[in-house]
Amino acid sequence: MGLIRILLALAVVGTHCNSHPLLKFVGGLVAVQAFFVISGFYMAMIIDTYDSAKTFWISRYMRLYPTYIVCAMLTLFLLHGVQNYLAQITTLPNLATIFIAFTNTTILFQDITMFLGIDNNALSFFKYFGDSSPPLYAFLLIPQGWTLGLEISFYILAPYILKVLRRLMWNS
């Protein structure tokens, strides 16, 4: 299962970069969907190996966070420049600046960022992320990190979903 997930991750990278055609063997959208389906089966298999939901959440988060924070810091220092980036985000309303700083440092809620923007100098929800000017996702250090936010949301829900499904299976 791990090898399939690696190949799917490479397919996503291949979609985002103009890389070798072999990396695009299934396309980005299909790769992301398949990756989440396989991850769901994997979570169902391993969740009982944890002592509690809390240890499960911490373990899953700590598998993502170190790699994310290294990539975010490299992006900040090498691509944006710290001073330039800080100058950009401080032009946002205070709540938006706080939210962007929080989500960039923790990964949490990056998926929600795709639906947030600035309207009348205030942080607002939008149906379509392109309707905002500027779109808030543009201030994410790693814009593709929204998938990690979604993954963390899934991890938070997984223990409860499995508990309900098992209860339904035993009562059937």
UniProtKB/TrEMBL annotation:
<dbReference type="GO" id="GO:0016746">
    <property type="term" value="F:acyltransferase activity"/>
</dbReference>
<keyword id="KW-1133">Transmembrane helix</keyword>
<keyword id="KW-0012">Acyltransferase</keyword>
<protein>
    <submittedName>
        <fullName>Acyltransferase</fullName>
    </submittedName>
</protein>
<feature type="transmembrane region" description="Helical">
    <location>
        <begin position="29"/>
        <end position="50"/>
    </location>
</feature>
<dbReference type="Pfam" id="PF01757">
    <property type="entry name" value="Acyl_transf_3"/>
</dbReference>
<keyword id="KW-0472">Membrane</keyword>
<feature type="transmembrane region" description="Helical">
    <location>
        <begin position="95"/>
        <end position="116"/>
    </location>
</feature>
<feature type="transmembrane region" description="Helical">
    <location>
        <begin position="62"/>
        <end position="83"/>
    </location>
</feature>
<dbReference type="InterPro" id="IPR002656">
    <property type="entry name" value="Acyl_transf_3_dom"/>
</dbReference>
<feature type="domain" description="Acyltransferase 3">
    <location>
        <begin position="3"/>
        <end position="170"/>
    </location>
</feature>
<feature type="transmembrane region" description="Helical">
    <location>
        <begin position="136"/>
        <end position="162"/>
    </location>
</feature>
<keyword id="KW-0808">Transferase</keyword>
<keyword id="KW-0812">Transmembrane</keyword>
<dbReference type="InterPro" id="IPR050879">
    <property type="entry name" value="Acyltransferase_3"/>
</dbReference>
